[in-house]
Amino acid sequence: xxxxxxxxxxxxxxxxxxxxxxxxxxxxxxxxxxxxxxxxxxxxxxxxxxxxxxxxxxxxxxxxxxxxxxxxxxxxxxxxxxxxxxxxxxxxxxxxxxxxxxxxxxxxxxxxxxxxxxxxxxxxxxxxxxxxxxxxxxxxxxxxxxxxxxxxxxxxxxxxxxxxxxxxxxxxxxxxxxxxxxxxxxxxxxxxxxxxxxxxxxxxxxxxxxxxxxxxxxxxxxxxxxxxxxxxxxxxxxxxxxxxxxxxxxxxxxxxxxxxxxxxxxxxxxxxxxxxxxxxxxxxxxxxxxxxxxxxxxxxxxxxxx
Length: 306
Ligand code: UTP
Fold this sequence. Notes:
Order of helices and strands: EEEHEHHHEHHEEHEEEEHHEEHHH
Distance between the termini: 59 Å
Number of helices: 12
Bound molecules: uridine 5'-triphosphate
Helix content: 25-40%
CATH architecture: Alpha-Beta Complex
Strand order of the largest sheet: 5-4-1-6-11-8-12-10-9
Strand content: 15-25%
Number of domains: 1
CATH class: Alpha Beta
Number of strands: 13
Largest sheet: 9 strands, mixed
CATH topology: Spore Coat Polysaccharide Biosynthesis Protein SpsA, Chain A
Radius of gyration: 21 Å
């Protein structure tokens, strides 16, 4: 099973991040010196995917511009011998292919994925939600591809979540536990109350899906006029038709950057793992709440400007 095509739904309004998202896509929020979308594409490429179909909408041009060449900037950086600053992004531009599909009405995640149906045809493909950044030894998507090959079926990434978070997620009902990390799925309950939740295993933003998802989505397009079309409903419909769907507890750290608090946690967490930033952030955090802190001692601020 080859999974070379990835659909990245990035057309959402990002209302939890307004007013920032009024003109700037949340997919372009910085995490250290790269935008979130850069990490998503890197994870996809490290998982051997090459073709990225990004679902976009109004005010999202900066995503397309980011994954394109910038000859003037490249020339300028060469003149001052700083061309290494673009080496990471140039590697992506050289080795990956991008296509953009517009979603003119935000009809939900299921609708966004359905828009890529002509690009995918009869193969397994990946879906990566750019709200979820996965930091792990083995790329998150590669972990799912390995399981999809082994089980010959669709695979959803899941994470155990605390009771108070259950009602924010799709929660899986386990048909069979295969290993401590791998489950066969019976059903996905969309945002259940903790009382009615079938488990504490929440669906997160990585999927390997059979092309059969499009037949399920096709039927939903006809009767869901005006409602959001949920990807989990389409997965449930595949399950009802006898398709095997698995859930895998992805190994690594997942940051949900769809809210300001989640994004701030991601910046702190990721910078603490980066040798360039970690010493500064560690010092800042340990100093922050002490009477010596620059927060309490304005003289210290002046030292920073010297
Ligand atoms: P969210 O549910 O997080 O919606 O979408 P959102 O608009 O991004 O953010 P909020 O909830 O208003 O703050 C999950 C993913 O699905 C994409 C989003 O871009 C995000 O990556 N999506 C959602 C679409 O591409 N189209 C849609 O119609 C809905």
